[in-house]
Here is the input.
Amino acid sequence: METPLTQNIRDRQAPPDITAYTQSGGYRAVRATLGKVAPRDVISAVTESKLRGRGGAGFPTGVKWSLVPDPDAVPPPRYLVVNADEMEPGTFKDRLLLEGDPHQMIEAVIVAAYAIQADSAFIFLRGEYHLAERRLQQAITEATAHGYLGTNILGSGYNLSVQVHTSGGRYICGEETALLTALEGKRAVPRAKPPFPQLSGLWGRPTVVNNVETLCNIPHIINNGAAWFMDLGRGGDAGTKLYGASGHVRNPGAWELPMGTPLREILEEHAGGMQPGYELRAVLPGGASTSFLMADTLDVPMNFGAVEKLGSRLGTGAVIVMDQRTCPVGMVRNLEHFFAQESCGWCTPCRDGLPWIERLLAGLEDGDGESDDLAILEEHVGLLGPGRTFCAHAPGAMAPLASGLRYFRADFERHIHDKRCPWR
Amino acid sequence: MSTVEDRPRLTPDERSAIVALAHGHAQKRAVCIEALKYVQSRYRWVCDEHLREVAALLDMPRSELDGVATFYNLIFRRKVGQHVIFLCDSVSCWIMGREALCAHLGRRLGISPGQTTADGAYTLLPIVCLGHCDHAPAMLLDDALHGDLDAARLDKLLGIGEG
Here is the structure.
């Protein structure tokens, strides 16, 4: 089984420096591409590979790039921005890639920026990721010293500078337009789309925002071709995927597996099943903003389409396991507390609705639940759903709430009837 | 009542460092987070006077810079202790028992989340998912990430063992 993204990553070891990285085939994609392959042909290769965004939304990467206007039509500057603001609760895949193989990230940035003809790139990094920051800065210094960054890279005539921005810390910065607003030194409030960032992004210039894991695939696609990449996946979607598992499993962790690996295989073979005394009751398949999947759906292939058919989303592929000793109402309360706290406050349904939801759930947990609370919660699911708010933050928050109310109805009702949390 | 002389001022070197941050950026305000973090690295938090100075250096209205500063979890507009404990409060750590750890810390340090110990040594803050979910419960102690926490490990890391 091929694991291109993690082939250089060794647990608890320093990442490869530029010498080790180059010796293992690194920067080959840069050398083969810059000045040798037309940028639009790089985009075509990525489109053909059927790579889809790994940050949660799954948008086809090549299509995203192809919407950037030609440099003849819109002169520079233009920007590539790496979304390294990993903050989806339960998700720890991008940190692994950034800390474990920072040169892979830099090589990916160079090829992607070349493809869209950007002369400037930003890595928007989570402020809490201090080790990743140090390792990225080191990789940038080494890459610059070896002529992979700067002016006239490898004699190709192409120029690129890369800067790391460490965030002030807010979940909404992961939303690509909010991220751009943050990079401009403003409160990170999302922007209306259209215009899409490809036309009017950072400082109003053409900009592409891609997730860390998405971009890390690029050098491998360039080196090995679209057909090779598509063959890596099992079933519909191409490539590998970094899946994670957390909660009371025996062996929590993250693994690079073929896209479409069944959930059961991830949880039983890689995560080692449940710890003694714990039974799996449900999972969030791809972070906090995905809907619960119940124990009888574990055979679902973890790709975009199959998870969606079950009413949830692949999201980040970070599986959070809920066991029978965990109160579902308490878990949903924890999730909604997160969403309420991280709402940017721009639009009223999100700013006011989420704290109301959190208060109702806290009431249920504390034994103050009323008989009509569940109806009010369900009303919020509609009021904060898709199309009702400025961005996807509140609809994401409604995914675990709506599915929680549906699957754990009896547990919610018991909290009201017993006037206490049965798990406490 | 404070006089002008009492107020903290950025040193000339600090002011130059902030101006240098903005070099090469489309607009100076692009580096306002970097500038606030720089001030924090020197003074641990951003007081009103420093905020005013940074705003002037970056050609930003003070109110806008304060709007940015207060938007973010990692910019402190109040005094914090010598060390900041960011205890993850997101879902994986919650499932793995972070509430009990938080209560333990509260008893040991005599503070609630958001507070600083009387000796000014520690501030305890909740933080969104640290991306260390396979080693939950997790915390960031200043810049260092720690996982697989239990009460004993916490006490050891913080040097707050009994007796």
About this structure: The mean pLDDT of chain A is 97. The two ends of chain A are 45 Å apart (CA to CA). Residues 328-418 of chain A form a domain with the de novo design (two linked rop proteins) fold (CATH 1.20.1440.230). Chain A has three domains: 18-231, 239-323, 328-418.
